[in-house]
Write a structure and sequence with these properties.
Structural class of chain B: mainly alpha
Distance between the termini of chain A: 30 Å
Strand content of chain A: 15-25%
Number of helices of chain B: 11
Radius of gyration of chain A: 21 Å
Structural class of chain A: alpha/beta
CATH class of the largest domain in chain A: Alpha Beta
Largest interface: A-B, 77 and 64 residues
Order of helices and strands of chain A: HEHEHEHEHEHEHEHHHEEEEEEHHHEEH
Radius of gyration of chain B: 20 Å
Largest sheet of chain B: none
Number of domains of chain A: 2
Number of strands of chain A: 15
Oligomer: heterodimer
Helix content of chain A: 25-40%
Shape of chain A: globular
CATH architecture of the largest domain in chain A: 2-Layer Sandwich
Helix content of chain B: 55-70%
Largest sheet of chain A: 9 strands, mixed
Shape of chain B: globular
Order of helices and strands of chain B: HHHHHHHHHHH
């Protein structure tokens, strides 16, 4: 390959960090004074995206409002029906918006919760950080390598606390698993195999049509290249479209592989090769892999992470009484097996429900055992980050690392070939087409 | 065909082990198009998965089927075309890639339907080189395609694409200058007099707060 045809590193980083030094047209009140909310002060929050997970977060946050931890000041959605429901849920004195940038303009708002489709995560997070807002953003963090780079840069430059919604790390049994594994109970771990059921096929494909009147389709698409509205590509179903949700490997991989990277002490590291195969849907608009096998090879230390997406491949779940820290296992169809020199260890779920084997739950640390960080809860951990500047458990660097696994797995599947990754330079090596696909130009004016 | 066969087809497509040459091309293209138009969705899927190895000769025939009135046939054709683009972009396949790029450039003209031209633009964003800049940049003046065009130019590395964007900025109507400025900034170029508007809110809701 001729060097002149590659997007060189300087060009790529210039693109990814283009926010720096660009003159913005913004109103003078936008840039809130950077600083930490006092230990006893309420954090004032706005919600960007209030359907699906956003609706859950809004409801959940009301508990923190009642406890005097937060104020809820604003809700925002591009779907007027969802927005109207959120206004009712949030109560009086909460201002509704269609355009999240009105929220970013408000100096009284300290932080935002972003629960939009994946293709909006990076743009809105970067914009929020540039306006001095702390961010809780749904997982996976980003859709491209470039987006992840920009998110990290924006968080650092603006000194804001970012928590990404891979909340598995904050579950009670995740702590028990982490402690069990780092103390060598299954020996040296050289392989982690994640299991998950298939991504769905669209059983009811329909032609493109006009969007419903309550939906601002242009704003829903945001950074993505223009396409007409389709009923099978919108709320919820965006998960099965490659350019947005991109399948189970992102939707759940961002949970299960998040646990793996945390427990393996692998945050900040990355694979050297990624090789994926899979089967596509046979009809319809959804184009994410139905079945999928991805192998990530790590070096120094050497270990292998696999993502195996096949319905029926789950490790049978343990019998539980319901009195365990995480209660009964309600999501037995995904999780991971950790292979060590002295045995194996299994967990199920990995998101808001994370369940681990009995041997880890019942293990009593001997004197001198290594302890690990125990999250007080995913949102509580974020509040602590906002008030103290402490790194959150699913901070932006770790989250981008996990999202990159998902992105690179899909990229290898799409291209049908093995990829070589340079973790230090954050780039694909020796494949010009793959390098171009590390970024995706964004529609005006919805860009990083 | 069973799912297992689909998996085998996927693996074979990924491996790209079956080369085709000479007079076999014509037959291979005809066979591909026939299967792409099949009424059985699994046959269509197997066909587009294997399109990569058919390569450049299948580009224009597949593009013609992309506008088929049968939605799933059109989708299969589009998938097949993308498969060719992804296969030809692999390292060490420069001749194949050049041949595919040449065929794609032939689909940018106004004799083609806009959805086909738009898709072809994005295909060129992945594998197009210097030779594709001029025909792509010509579409900066096309109202329906100009936004995709400037994004595609943004993605193609090298000085030529930046130069095309700079020329496009000079010629652009006022309501499109900011779009091109966005691309130029992403490419690291300095743009004077056109402030970035990404943080400026523009969209109002009719939903009212509770009293």
């Amino acid at each position: 390959m001729k060097r002149t045809k590659q997007l060189d590193r300087r060009e790529f980083l210039a693109a990814a960090g283009a926010a720096v030094g660009v003159p913005y047209l913004i109103r003078p009140n936008v840039l809130a004074s950077l600083g930490r909310t006092g230990a006893n002060e309420r954090i004032t929050i706005g919600f960007i995206g209030v359907g699906g997970m956003g609706g859950y977060h809004l409801s959940d946050m009301k508990g923190f409002r009642e406890a005097g931890v937060v104020n809820i000041a604003a809700v925002c959605d591009v779907d007027e029906n969802r927005l109207a429901r959120a206004v009712k849920e949030a109560g009086a004195a909460v201002q509704p918006y269609r355009d999240y940038r009105y929220i970013l303009e408000r100096k009284d708002i300290d932080a935002v919760v972003i629960s939009t489709p994946d293709h909006w995560h990076a743009v809105q997070t970067v914009h929020a950080a540039e306006c001095g807002k702390h961010v809780y953003v749904e997982k996976p963090a980003c859709c491209t390598i470039e987006e992840g780079y920009a998110m990290i840069a924006a968080a650092k430059q603006n000194k804001v606390s970012i928590q990404v919604g891979s909340q598995g790390r904050s579950q009670p049994e995740a702590y028990l698993a982490h402690r069990y594994l780092v103390n060598g109970n299954i020996g040296h771990i050289d392989k982690v195999t994640c299991f998950h059921y298939n991504s769905p096929e669209d059983g009811n494909p329909v032609p493109d049509s006009d969007p419903p009147p309550e939906l601002d389709w242009d704003f829903w698409l945001g950074p993505l290249r223009w396409r007409p509205y389709n009923k099978r590509y919108c709320h919820g179903t965006f998960r099965w479209i490659m350019e947005s949700g991109a399948g189970q490997i992102r939707d759940r991989g961002a949970h299960v592989m998040s646990c793996a990277m945390w427990w393996m002490g692998a945050d900040g590291t990355g694979p050297v090769t990624i090789e994926a195969t899979g089967t596509p849907p046979t009809k319809g608009l959804w184009d994410s892999a139905v079945t999928m096998d991805v192998t990530y090879t790590f070096k120094n230390p050497d270990w292998v992470l696999t993502w195996n997406q096949h319905t029926g491949n789950a490790v049978p779940a343990e019998e539980r009484t319901g009195k365990e820290p995480g209660g009964k296992i309600t999501r037995p169809d995904y999780g991971a097996v950790y292979h060590g020199t002295k045995g194996t260890f299994v967990h199920w779920g990995g998101d808001g429900g994370t369940w681990v084997e009995k041997k880890a739950r019942e293990w009593k640390p001997p004197a001198g055992a290594q302890d690990v960080y125990k999250s007080p809860g995913h949102k509580e951990d974020w509040f602590n980050g906002i008030k103290t500047g402490a790194k959150t458990i699913m901070n932006i660097e770790a989250s981008v690392g996990v999202a990159n696994l998902c992105i690179l797995g899909n990229l290898s599947y799409i291209l049908g070939r093995k990829l070589h990754w340079d973790q230090a330079k954050q780039e694909v090596v020796g494949d010009e087409q793959a390098r171009r696909m590390m970024s995706r130009p964004q529609r005006h004016p919805y860009h990083l | 065909m069973s799912v297992n066969n689909l998996q085998k087809a996927s693996l074979a497509a990924a491996a790209g082990t079956t080369g085709i040459s000479g007079a076999a091309h014509e037959n291979a293209v005809d066979a591909l198009i026939a299967k792409i138009k099949d009424t059985n969705d699994k046959v269509r899927t197997e066909a587009w998965l294997g399109a990569g190895k058919v390569g450049a000769p299948a580009v224009k025939p597949l593009a013609r089927v992309m506008t088929d009135e049968e939605l799933e046939v059109a989708r299969a054709a589009k998938h097949g075309l993308w498969k060719i683009v992804r296969h030809s972009g692999r390292p060490g396949a420069d001749d194949e890639k050049k041949a595919v790029v040449a065929e794609l450039m032939g689909l940018l003209g106004n004799d083609q339907p806009t959805p086909v031209r738009r898709e072809v633009l994005w295909m060129l964003s992945e594998i197009g080189g210097e030779e594709s800049i001029k025909p792509i940049a010509a579409l900066l003046s096309n109202k329906e395609l100009q936004e995709d065009t400037r994004m595609v130019l943004q993605r193609i590395p090298g000085r030529e694409s930046v130069a095309a964007l700079e020329a496009g900025l000079k010629a652009a109507p006022e309501d499109f200058k900011l779009n091109i400025a966005q691309s130029l900034r992403q490419r690291g170029a300095k743009v004077r007099g056109l402030a970035c508007v990404k943080l400026v809110p523009t969209k109002k809701t009719d939903v009212k707060p509770l009293q």
